[in-house]
Amino acid sequence: MTVTMAPGRGVWRSRDRRSRVRTSLAALVATMSLVSAACSSGDGGGDSSTVDEGFTPVTFTSPWGDSTPEARPERIAAVGYKDTDIVASMGESPVIVPANTVKQETWTLDALSGDPEATFEYTESGMPPMEELAAAEPDLIIASQLDLKDVYDQLSDIAPVISAETQDDVAGNWQQTLINLGEALGEEERADEVVQQTEDTVAAVRKKYPEFAGKTVSLIQYFGLDEMRLLNPAGGDAAALFSEMGFEEDPATTELQGVQLGGERVDDLAADVVIVLDNSDGRIGELQDSAVFRSIPAVRDGHSLVITNNAFTEGNEPSFEANGKHYEGNLAWAVAYPGPLSSQWAVETLTPLLADTVG
């Protein structure tokens, strides 16, 4: 089942590729109750005595090749930025994860059923080091939101791969990755419930804050005046998250996907609400003093929010500052790389700040 955003409508819509109907939850449940219950089922793949009993192999397609796990995975490698989040939401514990996950994703670590055996740093090409990945001996690799054209064959030589199903999904579609993982585990219903629970959590925000409806928002990742980019261009996971909260998705921003902008073009990112994720370690004043930035109507009229990410300060603390207050957790990371758990944590953390900004 592929889950995409309906442009401008702010709701998820589904195209069922495998003719399965998703099970709906009757009502909104506590955000982490499903994950807590899942985690109680045990480490990793669960009771090995049931492995392969009634297992049906599923072939996962991608723009670069196809993979077919022949048994229920017991040792999952989480390779993409949000893949540990996805695996944890299913009550599983990956054997190897990106180092940044351990440093920043407190919500994911709390949900894991066990500690990862290893971590890795991405190479200069933005890919995992193949030798370290192979040494972890995974039997399934989750590598979403990565363009694998140069490394797919190497990955699939190590283990079957779940990645983007289409080139468009490289920009983001955590729901599809989660549904695919559920199929690989033989636990489609649980995956469907996690998707539904996340939708319900975000939909509750939409109902609670009707003032968000119809407004556009720009989510700006800021490292300095010479290094900025839009994190919520139309079609990506962050744009989908904000649309589900009630904000209007701007189709014109699709062309800004992956584009790095300098200070002279910051007004290209103008919207009704402007959120700056400050990763600059003290250089935010350069942006706030910029005449171009100050000329943006949202900034001029007080509808902007600066979230200072403390992960880029000494100590790499997963916390942030906003409106003069200190908060635990890396909100910048959560909204930049939304998955099921980070989406739930992010909207509950961000929406009170957004309500003040919009109001």
Question: What do these coordinates show?
Answer:
Helix 6 (152-158) links the parallel strand 6 (140-143) and strand 7 (161-163). 33% of the residues lie in helices and 16% in strands. The chain has 359 residues and is of the alpha/beta class. Mean pLDDT is 84; it is low at 1-51. The chain folds into 2 domains: 21-201, 3-Layer(aba) Sandwich (Rossmann fold), CATH 3.40.50.1980; 209-358, Rossmann fold, CATH 3.40.50.1980.
How would you summarize what this structure contains?
This protein is α/β, with parallel strands linked by helices. The protein has helices spanning 33-39, 83-89, 99-104, 106-111, 130-135, 152-158, 174-185, 188-208, 237-244, 284-288, 291-294, 297-300, 331-336, 340-358; strands at 2-5, 12-15, 76-78, 96-98, 118-120, 140-143, 161-163, 217-224, 227-230, 273-278, 304-309, 319-322, 325-328. The protein folds into two domains: 21-201, Nitrogenase molybdenum iron protein domain (Rossmann fold, 3-Layer(aba) Sandwich); 209-358, Nitrogenase molybdenum iron protein domain (Rossmann fold).
